[in-house]
Design a protein that fits this description.
By secondary structure, this protein is α/β, with parallel strands linked by helices. The protein is built from 8 helices and 11 strands.
Length: 245
């Protein structure tokens, strides 16, 4: 694991091109890589077209089955190149990926989306796939860059069973990540099981005030919620919720 990471390996079974969902997507690194892949003559034409958005997303069967072959337990960041719950992803792809994760129980899968309403729709269609004991090996999460986006996405995510996390990166404004009993847009909410946060990096990075991140770290520490501060390199054992076997 490289310094500054909270996962062991990225797993991208879908070749796809995502689209921008909010201000946090302005400098999206996925789209830069997707452009490179689409222009790579060594890539299969079907893949190139999927990366370019000229064709439907492609679920690679060889990549899909990889987690079961990894015997040593890993923390797997799922579909970092895009979003499983993007509007272009067929339901059958989501079903296959979910079943693959459930079958590879030795691993901990981190699923992140900017489209929790699509995740909620998936749950409503396939509730049996979420009928697992507390602490199982999938943690669903949302990314948010400011308070308004956090409110909209977090309260929706909380309607889906299981453990939840929030990725506040790139952090573009102060965010209060903890909510007591209450309602927002008709939804109730709970506190996150885990939080990751950090500033935007790379070319054209927008600034994040240190006090925003210090406040999040203070909240997590006072409430005993595991967290990852991108500014620091903490051991992963102290950042992720324990697996329940």
């Amino acid at each position: 694991m490289k310094q500054g990471q909270y996962w062991d390996v990225m797993w991208n079974p879908i070749k796809m091109r995502c689209t921008k969902a909010s201000a946090g997507c302005k400098n999206c690194w996925h789209l830069r890589f997707a452009n490179r892949h689409a222009a790579n003559p060594n890539m299969p034409k079907r893949w190139q077209d999927a990366w370019a958005g000229k064709d439907t997303p492609f679920l690679d069967p060889r990549t899909l089955s990889m987690p079961r072959s990894w015997r040593k337990p890993r923390v797997i960041f799922t579909q970092t190149m895009g979003d499983i719950f993007h509007e272009s992803i067929p339901l059958k792809f989501q079903q296959q990926i979910w079943c693959e994760m459930l079958d590879a129980r030795q691993h901990l899968f981190l699923v992140l989306t900017k489209r929790p309403l699509k995740l909620l729709e998936f749950y409503e269609v396939e509730p049996d796939l979420f009928d697992y004991p507390a602490g199982q090996n999938i943690i669903t999460g949302i990314s948010a860059e400011n308070q308004d986006v956090m409110n909209d996405r977090w309260y929706t995510l909380c309607q889906v069973p299981g453990r939840h996390w929030a990725s506040l990166e790139p952090l573009l404004g102060p965010v209060g990540v903890f909510y007591g009993p209450g309602m927002h847009n008709g939804y109730t909410a709970k506190m996150p099981d885990w939080v990751a946060f950090g500033p935007e990096t790379g070319h054209g990075a927008r600034p994040a005030h240190p006090e925003w991140m210090d406040a999040i770290a203070s909240q997590c520490g006072s409430l005993g919620i595991p967290f990852f501060d991108k500014r620091k390199a903490n051991p992963i054992a102290h950042m992720l919720p324990r697996r329940v076997r």
